[in-house]
């Protein structure tokens, strides 16, 4: 399986706080059968420039790669990306393309936790039409529920993909929203959104088991294939 959303790079955001933690997270991913994962540290355009962020991200990545090469450990294929916070001006950011995942035009976008506002749809629309990028909405289930999802209709009608967190398949309350999204074909890719190996560890196997049980093996492989296609990663 491919994990579309993870904070395993060392010391760059609220994810892995040390090289050891990163290595333990990668060990866990290997045990959990994750063969490819996207590094998605948080990016906030209100805090720093894209270039400054990329230089920090690449340093963290190089540090991790050096350690992995040194100890000859097995680890999943890593694709670099970011979790980009949607802001009112993000579509105008001249370096936005640099935050895409790997060589693809897919960009992981985190909506604000303010409830729905119309500007969000306009901003996503601009990212698609003016920047020619493909937004993937990070853990979309966190922003909506069965009652307010109609507010997001216009946003979901755009050419976007929806990422759901593995944890949300295992949490009774969140799963109600997830069920609704799956039923309405608004589930495209799965991510662990893991930040460490304790309270925010990857729950990939639990989610995979539940998806297999509730929606079948074929659906699970469709989801995995879709994720790979979006960012051009083969099995
Ligand atoms: Fe995240």
Characterize the structure shown:
The structure is a single chain. This protein has 235 residues and is an alpha/beta fold. It has a single domain (2-231), classed as Metal-dependent hydrolases (TIM Barrel), CATH 3.20.20. 38% of the residues lie in helices and 15% in strands. A six-stranded parallel β-sheet has the order 3-5-6-7-8-9. α1 (19-31) links the parallel β1 (2-6) and β2. α6 packs across α7 (217-231). The radius of gyration is 17 Å and the shape is globular. Bound molecules: fe (ii) ion. Residues 5, 7, 40, 83, 138, 193 line the site of fe (ii) ion.
Ligands, deduplicated = fe (ii) ion
Radius of gyration: 17 Å
Strand fraction equals: 5-15%
Q: Give the ordered list of helices and strands.
A: EHEEHEEEHEHEHEHH
Helix fraction bin: 25-40%
The level 1 CATH classification is Alpha Beta
CATH-assigned homologous superfamily = Metal-dependent hydrolases
- Poorly predicted ranges: none
SSE topology sketch:
Elements: E1 2-6, H1 19-31, E2 36-39, E3 42-43, H2 50-71, E4 77-80, E5 83-85, E6 106-110, H3 118-129, E7 134-137, H4 153-156, E8 161-165, H5 172-183, E9 189-191, H6 204-215, H7 217-231
Parallel strand pairs: 1-2, 2-4, 3-5, 5-6, 6-7, 7-8, 8-9
Bound molecules: fe (ii) ion (FE2).
Key descriptive features of the protein:
7 helices; 3-stranded parallel beta sheet; alpha/beta; TIM Barrel; 38% helix; 235 residues
Brief overview:
The protein is an alpha/beta fold and 235 residues long. It has seven helices and nine strands.
């Amino acid at each position: 399986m491919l994990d579309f959303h993870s904070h395993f790079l060392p010391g760059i955001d609220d994810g892995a706080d040390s090289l050891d933690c990163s290595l333990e997270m990668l060990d866990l991913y290997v045990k959990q059968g994750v063969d490819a994962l996207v590094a998605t540290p948080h990016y906030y355009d209100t805090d720093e420039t894209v270039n400054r962020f990329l230089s920090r991200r690449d340093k963290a990545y190089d540090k991790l790669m050096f350690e992995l090469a040194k100890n000859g450990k097995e680890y999943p294929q890593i694709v670099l990306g970011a979790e980009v916070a949607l802001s009112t001006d993000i579509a105008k950011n001249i370096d936005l393309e640099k935050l895409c995942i790997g060589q693809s035009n897919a960009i992981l976008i985190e909506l604000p936790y303010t409830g729905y506002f119309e500007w969000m749809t306009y901003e996503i629309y601009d990212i698609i039409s003016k920047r020619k990028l493909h937004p993937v909405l990070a853990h979309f289930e966190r922003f909506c529920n069965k009652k307010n999802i109609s507010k997001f209709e216009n946003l979901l009608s755009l050419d976007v993909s929806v990422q759901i967190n593995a944890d949300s398949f295992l949490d009774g309350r969140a799963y109600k929203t997830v069920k609704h999204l799956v039923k309405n074909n608004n589930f495209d890719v799965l991510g662990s959104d893991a930040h460490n190996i304790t309270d925010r560890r990857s729950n990939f196997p639990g989610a995979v088991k539940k998806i297999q049980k509730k929606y079948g093996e074929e659906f699970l492989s469709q989801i995995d294939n879709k994720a790979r296609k979006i960012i051009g990663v083969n099995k």
